[in-house]
Design a protein that fits this description.
mainly alpha
């Protein structure tokens, strides 16, 4: 699943506003504003760092590994991702 879709679904399922989410992230020493969260959710910003994703997963009660995998898939160049898909389990 695409990172932005995963994040958007998680935010929607918790019924959090982006301001509420930003405030909850501060409990995990992650200070980001609602504008940045909006860009992550819409996919106009590349996926967040592992540290931010860990905090998002805790606040949103989602699997942190699933969120990180979705982020990595979007950060890895297509040719590398294709090669990983073909050779990863060999």
């Amino acid at each position: 699943m695409k990172y932005s879709v995963l994040l958007s679904n998680a935010i929607q399922s918790k019924n959090y506003s982006l301001s509420e989410l930003a405030n909850k992230l501060e409990e995990f020493d992650v200070k980001i504003d609602k504008g940045y969260l909006s860009k992550l959710r819409s996919g106009t910003k590349s996926p967040a760092s592992d540290r931010v994703n860990e905090a998002l997963a805790k606040v949103l009660y989602i699997d942190p590994l699933e969120l990180r995998i979705a982020a990595y898939k979007e950060k890895i160049p297509d040719d590398v991702l294709e090669r990983l898909g073909n050779d990863f389990y060999e």
